[in-house]
Amino acid sequence: MPNLFENDRNYVLGDPELDLIGDRAKLAQWRHKMKGPAFYKLGRKVIYRGSDLNAWAQANRTDPNENGAV
Known about the structure:
The protein is of the alpha+beta class and 70 residues long. It has one domain (10-59). It contains two helices and three strands, in the order βαββα. The protein has a three-stranded antiparallel beta sheet with strand order 1-3-2. It is globular. The two termini are 21 Å apart. It comes from Sulfitobacter litoralis. This is MerR family transcriptional regulator.
């Protein structure tokens, strides 16, 4: 699977690329519930690493052709 995010980049809330996985409110809910992609919390700033976002996206990938489906 091609990467959805740049592996060597840090993403912060407000970056439009994060809208691929959820809006600001959804990301906040996931952080509160300790779900979703890994993140750093530095004071009030939330940072997502591109490599963590790609790993999370890959782990949540669904292929309808798997499990013997034809």
